[in-house]
């Protein structure tokens, strides 16, 4: 099973579940993976930044990826392989593909500036991981400070047959989706899959602009699946109604620094993982933040019963 | 009238209205200023980044500030004086104060890194503008890449008697508000006013954390005023209900690059300014973006009649 | 007298001389300008970063520029007009040209990332200053974090007839000079003047690569003139011998933070300006640094009698 | 053998020698290590940025480190363990120490801004590698964009008993050395070893300011050893004479991007390594750059016979 340009729907960014003592919680990996499948995810992505990949050593990272892959069954799994050098990237990519990954995701190092540097980087990366390994471009300038114009993305797509997907999280990014779909329409770029990140903050309109779905880690991936489905099937108002009900919490979760703490807290409250433990270094929620999230969940539950968690 | 630490409520960040030919629209300045007063703003801020200050030459900038100040009457006006050097900053600050400004706002240059550098900068800035000129710290790391810990803010407050207010737009920032209010509670920092920016994206909780209000430019400053009032008076659910209704549009307006275009578009649609024209360089809304904003306005109008604008 | 693509030789970056009390030292402006002419400079550049331009208010900046221009006589004067916005840039450029400047220099703001953004910026800048005003691109990525490939520079040159010169201070930059001269040779770019900055640290080889000279502020502009002359006339070893003798001091002067303090100290020791005073904020030389510079001057004086300054 | 605060002299930053086909050249590792010992190096550092560490996978990196360590005999070897996460850092540090390393070197990630963030990072890093593993702070703001004041370095030293050395490559940095030695003199910081980097560009004065030596990779480590020895023994003029003779080449080698290509080229010309091959991505020397380096070597050979390499 290899990732290709026809992927659609929602690939949740999976967190790595830990026990409170820092050990990897394999049972929660299984439970979470099952949940993703049950709610209609069409794939998943592991070992991203929000998967705490840098806090895992090489052997652990592989173990985590393998466990997700084994449990995911028919669902394609994308493995993040961004690394400070091509040797580590190539090594991790080969191991991941050997373990059954469907493809890999590559973010640009924050030293890249010019269009030529960005294009050269992806050529060399594709060579390093193997020209037959499908890869996803992660376009996230807010985090990586690397700005890719639509024309540079087109160039990467043109120069690398193995490039099959864009994880779109430019900000603002709606016009970029329209521009890329325009390139496809005018024949200047072959079609690729576009899944959107940025915590889902603009998912309502991203689908309408032509995105194929979402790749992000919001604690309600089931909502993401529903919004993509409603939007794709033309139920615009219903898509926005559901999205808007979640927006206050989604926005809260998207805060840098403590976003992952919020996400894991809510996932644990929902019973999707056993503990919200993170490895160090970790942003922590204080008592006020916990109370705020509980308040947001209670408000959300009035519109979406999936947010009705048991009392603390 | 001098700005002091007792300021409360909402100081809208005023856009600079232009005619389509690029000229300054003085009538719209008057209309907008009147509107701010009518809806309960307690002050206003002009010549900020979102006021297109860098697109005005020195004489124009002063003219704009003077017009706002003259019309604002009893409302205190804060003038942004951030500049690449202390000479221009001091010159603009003196002119603004002479024209009747209540105080000035100073952002840190993006070259500052260490705690010592930040503290030294504000000491030198206060000396440059005059030790008696009340000033506001603008703490906006997402834009300026300068990160101020609560302890550094305390140090600036301690070292500069003229520092009376924090424009808080760190992200995430809720814990920072709590930390600063904690410093006041334990006696290690004298009280200052804290007004929140960041487009208002977290205003609902910022008030609950102890902020005194908002200083931001969302196209519905009347909503900001209502949320601050409701929150302050203990009507928590009502505050969140109103805020949540606006959140989809507010989030849309907060996009970097085209945020100001959206803001001016909505303000023009509301009749607060005559034209949404910006001077160059300007992010522009395409047809799809306009349709999206119209859709958001229509949805909002179901909850808040102030969003019911005439058909296009 | 307008700057054009035939400029050659050395345009010193002139410091702005101050009295110890912070006032502008007009007599030293005259003396310094005379010196530049006497030693063979072919022009000069004022109000650059090293001219402490941000520490001058608008009126002072114009006064300084006018004084230099008036005294320079037949020597063309370039005025730095980099500014946070096009309004201030345009205003300063018009004033400078009215006062007799030969052209202006424009650095890119550090927010630019993509090739398209850089090209767009220079198009808008040229429009803002007037399409007939000759301008110099300042390409200094170490300071501005904006990286321009040779192809982007070619694009700026192609799109802006008024672009006549490159102030080259990329690092490393020798290959860039060769690439640009290659563009001229293959007909893909019209010829422009290339003067090199970076404190002169690579001037010996820059001339050999095809640069037309130097635009930098080293305290011995007479050495820069000699090296460019010797190199141009084919006296390679002599050019390197002189350059190498100065390199220990030149390197010392090029340190960020205190470089200008060293430069002004040496210029004052040489009698070119009356005082080494800087306006705040200023890096200062401690006693050890002064002793180090004196030692370097003494060593240099064994090779170049111009470094033999009177005892302290 | 554990690194401690009494280290002195020169620890060359060793390049990783490759065969032209990209394989690791173990024989050249041995030859190079022998050379370091013969010319008086007091230790060496491997797997730094200039050792192309990111281009080695985990197993290769360990192999390289082990080969250097085995050959180095009595010379202490420092292993670079900077990594995007503490898991990989801890894993590499344990492996290196097990293989006989004397200590490790840790650079700060470029996301750190505030004093508190920097101090917290080193506390967590020391915990990750083991509180008993001696470590070196790499203070290189030009490359990492992290600015550490002398007070922050003092704080790291105070909070981490295992911190034994500073690799000093701030720029400018002479005053920082004086400040740190001042802290030791006034009793506010325990003594640490300070070895200087930055390509050796200021080594002449760094020794005079109190540095204990150099840790850098200039292609003539024998010159570095001589300069440190001459400077330490009070032969100031002789130290500067030798240093100045090398400065034109040293400066040329210090260029970002192609510096390592120049270094390996000269080392291969001297016979210290068999090939100047780098793994991709690599800056390459064109024909003009090669001719320039040959010219610099020929000029240097007039003063230092060690630069007299066989004709090409």
Automatic annotation (TrEMBL), chains A, B, C, D:
It comes from the Bacteria. The keyword Mitochondrion does not apply. Belongs to the DapA family. Pfam families: DHDPS. CDD domains: DHDPS-like. InterPro entries: Aldolase_TIM, DapA-like. The keyword Lyase applies. Keywords: Lyase. This is L-2-keto-3-deoxyarabonate dehydratase. SUPFAM superfamilies: Aldolase (SSF51569).
